[in-house]
Specification:
The chain is built from 5 helices and 10 strands. With 192 residues, it is an alpha/beta fold. Strands 5-10-7-6 form a 4-stranded parallel beta sheet. A two-stranded antiparallel sheet has the order 1-2.
Length: 192
Amino acid sequence: QKAGVTPVFLSHGDKICTGKYVFKFFDAGDKEKTPYKYHIVTSSPKMMKVIQQVENTAKFDKKSVLIMGETGTGKELVAKAVHEVSDRAGKPFVSVNCASIKKELAESLLFGFTKGSFTSATDDRMGFFEQAEGGTLFLDEIGELGPEVQGSLLRAIEYKDISPIGSVKSKKIDVRIIAATNRNLDNKTVRE
């Protein structure tokens, strides 16, 4: 109200259309009455199949997962659901927006670095992989990562092994990797 915005109060069952999406509002107590699971509210048979796939996928704890879909379709909700259903549920869920990482910082942010490994490295710093230890690392928009980090990323996925920048020793990690993209990764085009 201070900014001159008039509030709109919504009631149970009201709908709002924003672009191509329609949102229907439910009272908090109605979760049991509506198809609501893992923060996903749906009555779509296709989405119910996705929820079933989430539950099946969560059982295969050592396997990495790739979620593909258009922007705004709920890829992160699906990733969180896989994490919540898995045995890793009590451990960290670390979400990384790969599209926002500058290519020259990607490796240090993902894998960490040691003190003195470059000019501004005044301390050792854990990367996202170590922060997710025991849990799940969600790499959103993985198709936006440049080729310079792909070798290290492949090693982390295949061997569960990372090397922080400046370190001569590699570290074993126990992290489930869930990646998501809105790109067709079969297309050989890479980000420059």
